[in-house]
Amino acid sequence: MKTLTILLLSALIGLCACMGAFETTVNKADSPSDAGVFVEREEASIVVRQKRATAAADLSLAQLESLREVCEANLDCENMMDTSGIIAAYTKHYGPIPF
């Protein structure tokens, strides 16, 4: 009977130790040291919007129209241009913008 009690107690201690180790692993993702890896959705969308706005602001209207004319020749590019914008569509189908 003593052996069974010791075995059960050991199993309980082992289970508690494993649960404590699991909680420590899960809570490490919330620690401030990992703040650079995980970003809130609002912060990420602000950064992405800034990059898009900067890329569009660097091109003149004539350059954007030139990209639009090239993209209109390709049906897939034209459809993407309507949903994602001219810069994203041109970059995906033709590579980096030449100017």
Automatic annotation (TrEMBL):
Lineage top rank: taxon: Eukaryota
Signal peptide start-end: 1-18
Record-level GO cellular component terms: extracellular region
GO MF term list: calcium ion binding; hydroxyapatite binding; structural constituent of bone
Keywords: Biomineralization, Calcium, Disulfide bond, Gamma-carboxyglutamic acid, Metal-binding, Secreted, Signal
Ranges where the Gla domain occurs: 49-95
Location of this chain's protein in the cell: Secreted
InterPro entries: BGLAP-like_C, GLA-like_dom_SF, GLA_domain, Osteocalcin
Keyword presence, Ribonucleoprotein: no
SMART domains in alphabetical order: GLA (SM00069)
Keyword Calcium part of the UniProt annotation: yes
Gene Ontology biological-process entries: biomineral tissue development; bone development; osteoblast differentiation; regulation of cellular response to insulin stimulus; response to vitamin K
Pfam families cross-referenced by the UniProt entry: BGLAP_C
Family note: Belongs to the osteocalcin/matrix Gla protein family.
UniProt name for this protein: Bone Gla protein
Species of provenance: Ameiurus melas
